[in-house]
Amino acid sequence: MHKLYLNMLFSLTMIVAIATLLSFIVTYNFTNISGIMIMHVPHSKLDISKMNLSSIKEYNSNGIFDLKTHLLNSIFNFTEKSIVQITRKSPVSTPLFHYPFPPSPSPDPDEKQNMTVLGSGFVYDKQGHIITNYHVVDNAKFVDITFIDGNKYTAAVLGKDPLSDLAVLKIIEKLNEPLRPLTISNSTSINIGDTAIAIGNPYGLDNTMTAGIISQVNRLIEEPSGISITDMIQTDAAINPGNSGGPLLNIKGQVIGINTAKGAEGEGFAISSNTILKEVPILIQKINFTHSYLGLNGTTMTPDLAKQFKNVPKTIKGVYVNMLAKGGPADKAGIKGMTIDYYGQNHGGDIITAADNKSIIDMDNLVTYIDQHTRPGDTTVLTIFRDNHYIKLDVNISTRPTSLIIMPI
Questions:
Q1: What domains appear along the chain, each with residue ranges and CATH number?
Q2: Closest CA to 81 of 157, 167, 175
Q3: Least confident of 166-180, 219-233, 310-324
Q4: Annotated catalytic sites, by residue?
């Protein structure tokens, strides 16, 4: 009797499974190519907001669900009308703060004294605000933006922040059709290995998509000008000249960053979406964004550096203070910088080991903390190792100068 019951249960299970499979086959179209089964999902069935590429399983000889191609294609179709090409004229003699992408020469022989700078951007809201990089617009007051359908508008440079390489534009002409802003995600939710999708206009080629992964997060990138940009996202998705200002997307088609810099060995960098969310509303309202400033230059502590000083543990972690900006916040708080005696020996530099009770392990860590977690007017408590003991000093954070010749933080 028990065996008969099991047989009936097995038969019922098989019937349900076969019915489900038949229903699935009716809904989706399958193709067999060289022994590989591919499932074609209609775009109308794809909900990119609920899909995760990492959950898609691939089977070599048994069959492969080719969702990746359809998903990327759907993301492109979903976002292409929200991405623009940005062009402006720049005098040839203008110093190039166009790192890492120099401007392209104008093809017009009558404009030998000018260059055409190309970049990308994307729609922030339905009111006509466009986000891009500062180095794409530089000191221009107006730029031209072109959508994929050929619609071209003039946009005013509304707000900009050279210290984060961000700029906000505002379309000043009547729109031919409603704008489609992209959704901006919280970049703290991304993980190393997540899919990263870059869309822009490299080399002037309209709306080009490349895909890769998130290689690392929370990078600090120093530009040739000496400006350090914090909370950068590193990706191996191809980023080339003209991609600057375009969005870096996640697998849901949401913005997680702004493509900014091309690194070595095929690595690229993007400003995090959290920086966008923090700064853009202020740039729209107040035209500029103020950054925190300590007024010091430092070096990451190492065992070799610790050997040069008496009573400094070899294992200590932190930032050795080299120089102070006279009259700056660190100087006013009583922090001591390095001095060099007649014999070339270093003396007197404080070692910063914590900020607001959060451990500081290197200079990048300190720069990132001050930039991301403090605002001008705040008081930050720095833990200092000096003369073989620890002390705490209150530092009143001020506004970072916009001059390019400044202390790193």
A1: 82-106+114-289 (2.40.10.120), 292-399 (2.30.42.10)
A2: 175
A3: 219-233
A4: 135, 165, 244
